[in-house]
């Protein structure tokens, strides 16, 4: 089963504004409109069976609405969409909210510190991570165009979290560090971490073929997950780009496209099995 692990889709009322924001922030022209219908059409055209739609609250007050939207998407498109909910360290009722979204069948949580307005090193996240171990997969945005010490998210901050919470299941977006790949190679990819996966999203448009090959070689093959960051990039184009730049065989490409289907807790509602410390 082919899965796109990293997509975004917005309510029709705000999709246009959300895409405009993405275009401005990342200096791109988004390939999609940002609506769920356009997302599913793009995935079907690429031969992708399912996609993970990531929702993130940019303020504490948006946690409930964002999670309600995630729940509604998953219910409306069974077998096509896996929705990830959200938390925010400023939202005081996070324990009850974790219980609520877990009961609703949400398997994962998206964190985007840069857009959500907190640092990944925020101590208020620590009890949330502790409570979420064995219950949710976290998809975490990592990196930006500024230096790690000035960035709310970076490979070093994620490495510290993984060391502190060895049972926390984490997908490090963008090969572990958007525009910080040298730092990801020095931190996240030098130690065996059985609780860590890497998605391929938003990397190839900014990389050389040599860098793509280096990143692919540094990651355990079974820990690589295909992601597009739609609506930023088209699934068909991204599949072609990573295969060509990485000089990947068809069998290796098939593995990257289907690895997500083997992730604990992603395609079923059972709790994620606890894992030994790395």
In short:
38% of the residues lie in helices and 12% in strands. By secondary structure, the protein is of the alpha/beta class.
Explain this structure.
This protein is α/β, with parallel strands linked by helices and 278 residues long. The protein has one domain (3-262): Metal-dependent hydrolases (TIM Barrel, Alpha-Beta Barrel). Helices cover 38% and strands 12% of the residues. The protein has 11 helices and 8 strands. It has helices at 15-26, 36-46, 63-76, 94-103, 113-116, 126-132, 155-164, 181-187, 209-218, 235-246, 250-258, and strands spanning 3-7, 50-54, 81-86, 108-111, 137-140, 169-172, 196-199, 224-225. The chain has an 8-stranded parallel beta sheet. α9 crosses α10 (235-246). The longest helix is centred in the N-terminal third of the chain and has 14 residues, at 63-76. It is globular. The two termini are 28 Å apart. The model is unreliable at 269-278 (pLDDT under 50).
What do we call the CATH topology?
A: TIM Barrel
Spatial ordering of strands, largest sheet: 1-2-3-4-5-6-7-8
Give the SSE string. EHHEHEHEHHEHEHEHEHH
CATH architecture verdict: Alpha-Beta Barrel
Which secondary structure elements does this structure contain, and how are they paired or packed?
Layout lengths: L2 E5 L7 H12 L9 H11 L3 E5 L8 H14 L4 E6 L7 H10 L4 E4 L1 H4 L9 H7 L4 E4 L14 H10 L4 E4 L8 H7 L8 E4 L9 H10 L5 E2 L9 H12 L3 H9 L20
Parallel strand pairs: 1-2, 2-3, 3-4, 4-5, 5-6, 6-7, 7-8
Helix pairs in contact: 9-10
């Amino acid at each position: 089963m082919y899965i796109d692990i990293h997509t975004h889709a917005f309510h029709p009322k705000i999709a246009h504004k959300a895409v405009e924001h993405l275009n401005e922030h990342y200096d791109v022209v988004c390939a999609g409109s940002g609506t769920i219908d356009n997302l599913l059409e793009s995935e079907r055209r690429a031969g992708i069976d399912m996609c993970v739609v990531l929702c993130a609250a940019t303020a504490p007050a948006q946690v409930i609405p964002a999670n309600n939207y995630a729940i509604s998407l998953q219910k409306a498109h069974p077998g096509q969409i896996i929705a990830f909910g959200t938390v925010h360290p400023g939202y005081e009722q996070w324990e009850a909210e974790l219980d609520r979204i877990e009961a609703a069948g949400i398997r994962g949580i998206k964190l985007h510190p840069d857009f959500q307005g907190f640092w990944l090193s925020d101590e208020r996240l620590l009890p949330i991570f502790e409570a979420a171990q064995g219950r949710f997969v976290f998809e975490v945005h990592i990196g930006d165009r500024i230096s790690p010490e000035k960035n709310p998210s970076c490979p070093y901050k994620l490495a510290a979290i993984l060391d502190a919470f060895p049972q926390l299941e984490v997908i490090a977006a963008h090969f572990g560090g958007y525009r910080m790949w040298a730092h990801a190679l020095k931190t996240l990819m030098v130690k065996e971490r059985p609780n860590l996966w890497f998605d391929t999203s938003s990397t190839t448009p900014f990389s050389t073929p040599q860098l793509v090959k280096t990143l692919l070689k540094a990651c355990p093959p079974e820990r690589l997950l295909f992601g597009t960051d739609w609506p930023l990039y088209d699934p068909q184009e991204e599949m072609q780009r990573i295969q060509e730049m990485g000089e990947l065989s068809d069998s290796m490409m098939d593995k990257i496209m289907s690895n997500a289907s083997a992730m604990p807790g992603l395609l079923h509602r059972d709790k994620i099995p606890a894992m030994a410390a790395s």
